[in-house]
Amino acid sequence: MRYIISCENPHRHFIQIEFIVPVLAQNLAPLQLQLPSWRPGRYTLQNFAKNIRAFAVYDEKGNLLAFKKITKDSWQVKQEGAKQVHVKYEYYANVLDAGSSYLDEKQLYVNPVNCLLYVPGREGEKCEVEVRVPENYKIASPLTPLPWRGEQRPILEAADYHVLADSPFIASSTLKHYTFTVPSAPLSLGEGQGGEALVDFHLWFQGESKPEFEKIENHFRKFIAAKLNVFGEFPFSEYHFLFQIAPFPLYHGVEHQNSTVIALGPSYDLMKEQLYAEFLGISSHELFHAWNVKAIRPAEMQPYDYSKENYSKLGYVAEGVTTYYGDLMLFRSGAVTEYEFNRNLHLLLQKYFHNYGRFNLSVGASSLDTWLDGYEKGIPHRKVSIYNEGALCALMLDLLIRKQTGNDFSMDDVLRKLYQDFGKKGIGYTEEDYRKALESVAGISFADFFAKYYNGTQSYEPILRETFAYVGLEIKDSRSKYYFENRFGFKAENKRSGALMITEVAPNSIADRAGLSEADELVAVNGIKLLNNLKEWLKYFEEETVTLTILRASETKNVSLTPTTERYYRTYWPVKMRDASEHQKENYKKWTGREW
User: Fold this and answer.
1) pLDDT band at 189 (very low <50, low <70, confident <90, very high)
2) What is the spatial distance between Cα 487 and Cα 480, in angstroms, rounded to a whole number?
3) Residue 326: how many CB atoms within 10 A of its CB?
4) Nearest Cα residue to 280 out of 176, 203, 190
């Protein structure tokens, strides 16, 4: 299967693509062509075909072949004795994030799963991609480069379409490249062991940026080593981090087989404390996916079917466990401080306690519904997050296993077992397989845990406090710093338009009983027009009944709120117990790898 990718008139953002299919002599049936409807890593239909125009089909002599579109993203071609079918089309690439494709005068950035057709049933055939770019362009890609031939065009080779679809690349004259090498297995296996096989890690930066490579390498080496200690080996001989650095705020990452694309911004903050911490966090998260979901994969996605939904309840493992371990590996390795680790735990707790959807839909059911609206906020209080609630469940299970086994075993052992029994063998696992792996390591049943927390809506709070206490932590809650959250039970934020919008209302809160709802625009307090100063005016009228003027469906309405003893949207932080025992401190050390 051959692809030719060109980028004429890059300011128009249209990539020119030619797909050349060798015709099988024995197959006289019409040729079926399919464009993916979604991409692995984002479990929702994205309908990439909406970006295609100028679709035409020819034989090897340039004669037009008849075709018809049979679904929103598949076509049928009459082969009419052709030896090759040449499909030509243009793909609009004007979104710069970690999962899309983008073309302008500075770069050609392609996620093949967005824009490259395949022939259903022939995904296992070798693929070649000829990339027609200016001679001064370098290419950042996990694909194997072939020797240049003909007009000296770069040729990228993939073993099959699944590898091709999972191998993004960037072509640009401004790419910054840095490489370092680590042993493919933990050095703790013994002197000289683990160092024989090496893994090359490539850091590619596209966009305005000033990466401090030695600092980055130092931190990356730490969390890579921590992951190797969990799994025992790295699945690939090389790995590519492709960073798209934007001049505007941006945060997005997508995992691939032996690479990841991470989009961050703004450029000038990359090496500053806050964005750099996020840079480390997302890099750790995406690298963990090299084992968890690229190797250890739900049975429903082994292999991927790009043409339709691949429903699975196991998003809480694929993304939840990865979220938990991405942060834990950073702290365990010493790449981040205790405060940064606690802040990430704080955010998990905060999102959980502030999300009233936890009373309505389990994290397992929410995983299935990623295909419905999992990456949008959706209607109020309907669902939870596979990332957030999945991470909390992973944390609780990790600490439960440690408690049950006296720290002899942990979630590390569960993941290592899943990798050995399923990931390395290319076998998909089920929810039952996951539960059995947990039980075999812990020596107890987790049927009740799955029923209550993965597949039910029972409150996490009691078991969270219990497991935190095992490692000498407690969950401290305090009032929100925003009066309107704490006393009335609603959240608000300023939109780009300048409007101050209510974004959440706690069920049965003062705000809810008074008739406020999401998407109401706040206009005034006690008749005084709001000018980005809601917090200040409510502080001024503290403990008094206030009248809010709202705009709803182009009509104004006055709503009166009277503070009571009720409190909402509290702030949750993990803190060390002042009276923690030596046993709890030792448990903490074995969990985090860090001194108390």
Assistant:
1) very low
2) 9
3) 25
4) 203
In a domain, 285, yes or no: no
Helix and strand element counts for the chain (H, E): 18, 27
DSSP line for 439-487: HHHHSS--HHHIIIIISS---SHHHHHHHHHHTTEEEEEE--SSHIIII
Measure the CA–CA gap between 549 and 58, rounded to whole angstroms: 64
CB 214 within 8 Å of CB 176? no
Q: Which two tokens stand for residue 124?
A: 């296992």
* Separation of alpha carbons 522 and 500, rounded Å: 5
Strands 2-6 and 127-132: parallel
Domain ranges, residue 514: 483-561
Helix (H, G, I), strand (E, B) or coil at 593: coil
| Phi, psi torsion values for 313, nearest 5 degrees | -85, -5
Q: Are residues 221 and 163 in the same domain?
A: no
Sequential DSSP letters for 81-112: T-SEEEEEEEEE-B--SSSS-EESSSEEEE-H
Distance, in Å, from the CA atom of 385 to the CA atom of 277, rounded to the nearest integer, reads 22
- At residue 195, the pLDDT reads 47
Q: Using alpha carbons, list the distances in angstroms from residue 138 to 112, 147, 236, 243, 338.
A: 18, 15, 23, 14, 40
- Alpha-carbon span 504 to 186, nearest angstrom: 47
Least confident of 51-55, 232-236, 307-311, 373-377: 373-377
DSSP class of residue 64? B
The reply to whether 291 falls in a domain is no
Q: Are residues 128 and 97 in the same domain?
A: yes
Q: What is the largest CA-CA distance in the chain?
A: 83
- Token pair of 281 as six digits: 């966090």
| Close Cβ partners of 6 (under 8 Å, ≥ 6 residues apart) | 15, 16, 17, 18, 132
Strand bridging mode 84-92 / 198-206:
unpaired
Alpha carbon 356 to its chain's center: 23
Strands 259-265 and 238-245: parallel
Same domain, 430 and 540: no
pLDDT for 148 equals: 58
Decide which of 136, 171, 206 is a domain's last residue. Answer: 171
Measured distance CA(498)–CA(465) in Å, rounded? 41
pLDDT band at 15 (very low <50, low <70, confident <90, very high): very high
Contact of 327 with 417, CB cutoff 8 Å: no
Q: pTM of whole model > 0.85? A: yes
Helix 431-442 to helix 388-405 angle, to the nearest 10 degrees? Answer: 30
**Does a structural domain hold residue 96?**
yes
